[in-house]
Amino acid sequence: MTPDPAPRATSRSDPGLGELLGGRAGAVDASVPVVAFVLAWVLAGHLGSAYPINWGAGAAIVAGAGVAVWRLARGRRPRAVLFGLAGVVAAAAVALITGRASDFFLVQIVSNAGSALAWAISIVVRWPLLGVVVGGLLGQRTRWRRDPDLLRGYQRASWAWVCQYVIRLSVFLPLWAADQVVLLGLARTVVSPVLVGLSVLVSWPLLRTALPGDHPGIRHPR
């Protein structure tokens, strides 16, 4: 009779990727300026303002600053907070310059395209970005790359993130081309957090199933 395989050490010793990445909370925070932009733009337009984009941009920046203060108060890294706020300011500036409200989402669309490309390239060149991120959070630097099982697992799991960026683009690009500001705001608020959550959820089994049963787990590269 064939003995049962040894239980995975990863099931007990490893933290979940959701615990490490905290993806959904950040995605929800990032949606607040978007909601503020769309609501202010719609309201200003209904009230007959000649410059509804100005109101939308101002509301987004104020909301982004509020989120930044909230994140700092909760101990988030100042650099990450400032990058998030800079993204909101850049999005508002693009919309103000072009005079097209849907261009508020252009920075996000370009960022998604760049992210999809970067994640795909990282897998091909054997520097999967999921490994870079998780390895950095665990204080491993690049030790995980010397473990062929972990490297393969991070490569496999990183495809989930490539897919979520591609799905975002397939939703956002047609809406942007059709100048559907409200639908863009709705899609950005609903789709992005859901996709981030699903990516975190799917990445973990993809990573774990690439590891042999006797592997000590992602905390302990071999």
Automatic annotation (TrEMBL):
Transmembrane spans: 21-43, 55-73, 80-97, 117-138, 159-178, 190-207
Organism encoding this protein: Pseudonocardia parietis
Alphabetically ordered keywords of this record: Membrane, Transmembrane, Transmembrane helix
Protein name, UniProt field: DUF3159 domain-containing protein
Pfam families: DUF3159 (PF11361)
InterPro entries linked: UCP010219 (IPR016566)
